[in-house]
């Protein structure tokens, strides 16, 4: 998955905690999903203004592509964007970068399939119109595959 950082408009810094580190000094592989989750929720809160108490979301699938290890002393950030929007599901892509004196170095990429969900009815529901519109508007109509 060759990602171009120029395709992403949203980036958030990620704090590496000591507890994220495994026995050999790298960020544990399971922690990357937590980093993606933090970036996703920050994007939904700051950009999409998703009303989570009224319109739930669950993750239906996650993919992580480990390219380079991350260590405790690295400074990292995560780019995130919506890449596909269906009726009740949408895809989000992530690029985790290490910030170096020479620029940003891609360490990990990932994808989640998110599903708009009604917890009281225990079923998927259509993506709310306002949130759908904001995702398309922010991540550029030409960048998102709209399968709605």
Q: Would you kindly provide a written description of the structure presented here, covering whatever features stand out?
A:
By secondary structure, this protein is of the alpha+beta class. It has a single domain (5-146), classed as Thiol Ester Dehydrase, Chain A. The chain is 19% helix and 39% strand. It is built from 2 helices and 7 strands. It has helices at 31-48, 129-138, and strands at residues 10-14, 56-66, 76-85, 89-100, 103-118, 123-124, 145-146. Strands 1, 2, 3, 4, 5, 6 and 7 form a 7-stranded mixed β-sheet that branches.
Please describe the topology of this protein.
Layout: E1 10-14, H1 31-48, E2 56-66, E3 76-85, E4 89-100, E5 103-118, E6 123-124, H2 129-138, E7 145-146
Parallel strand pairs: 3-7
Antiparallel strand pairs: 1-3, 2-5, 3-4, 4-5, 5-6
